[in-house]
Amino acid sequence: GQPVAHSLSPVIHNAWLEAGNIDGAYMPFAPKDAAGFDALVAAGRAGLIQGLNVTAPFKEQAFALADEASKAAQATGSANILVFDNGRVRADSSDGVGVLYALAEQVPGLNLKDAVVVMLGAGGAARAGAGALIEAGASIRILNRSRDRAEALAADLGPSVTVADEVALSTADLVINALSVPPSIDLSALKPGAVVMDMTYKPVVTPFLAAARARGLTTVDGLAMLIGQAAPSFTALFRRPPPPLDLRTLLLVHLGEAG
Questions:
Q1: How far apart are CA 101 and CA 79, in angstroms?
Q2: Residue 120 in 3-state DSSP?
Q3: Does residue 259 carry a pLDDT above 70?
């Protein structure tokens, strides 16, 4: 990704590798641009890297470079996992799994069937999250500064997705921030039972989530999403399931937010 120095994924995966006594390493790569990402994938095709997790801004490029893609990646046109095998590239997306994991863990009472979800952003993470939510029965309203990008996403994902403006907030059951920056929306427009989620996890309680909590709204943090998407990634990259670990406690200690 670019930037990627903030990522907690190396903490997660290297802890699993150590706990499982697995001879491997998980390291951050920060290609400068699309050409740099192309070069990284070429190194994978050459057998120098076993696989990659991909984050912004390369998720759609990762999908485009793959020789084959999972149903989840195909549904959203983005990938956060690339696996290299004898010169071929397989793409997958576990971001949607991460969103559903986080919601199930932190708001188990939320029924996604027929729920109205307002998605802030139209990038790769928004694509993957929207795809999983559509499959769960939700309707998505995309709210994005660039309307063209939002319309392209809606066209790709089908009739359950529409482009919206802030008026849609009043009907939202769930609002998800898929932007890399704090959103500037009017939280007072939300109904009292609405749930607010932030895909960002540094800090765990972002200013967006703090503002939502101050209004008495239920919140879901990006750390839960990160943990939820990590296990399928590890299984894909290292060809075995991760050993059991209390990741949330480990990550909160790492972030200096334990307790």
A1: 18
A2: strand
A3: no
Residue pair 62/78 in contact (Cβ under 8 Å)? The answer is yes
Q: Annotated catalytic residue: which of 59, 71, 191, 202?
A: 59
Active-site residue 32, yes or no? no
Going from the C-alpha of 103 to that of each of 65, 146, 200, the distances in angstroms are 31, 27, 14
With CA atoms as reference, report the closest residue to 49 among 36, 35, 39: 39
As given in the structure block, the two tokens for residue 113 are 């069937």
Backbone phi, psi, residue 244, to 5°: -70, 130
The 10s digit of each residue's pLDDT in 2-53 is: 999 989 999 999 999 999 999 999 999 999 999 999 999 999 999 999 999 9
Tell me, rounded to whole angstroms, the distance of Cα 55 from its chain centroid.
Answer: 8
pLDDT in tens, 200-238: 998 999 999 999 999 999 999 999 999 999 999 999 999
- 87's CB contacts (< 8 A; 6+ apart) are 45, 46, 47
Average of per-residue pLDDT across 89-98: 95
β-bridge pairing 81-85 and 51-53: antiparallel
Q: What is the mean pLDDT of residues 43-70?
A: 96
- Residue 196 CB burial class (10 angstroms; 0-12, 13-18, ≥19): buried
Spatial separation of the C-alpha atoms in residues 221 and 223, rounded to whole Å: 5
Closest CA to 141 of 132, 154, 128: 154
Length of the chain: 259
Q: How far, in Å, CA of 195 to CA of 147, rounded? A: 24
Question: Is the pTM here over 0.85, yes or no?
Answer: yes
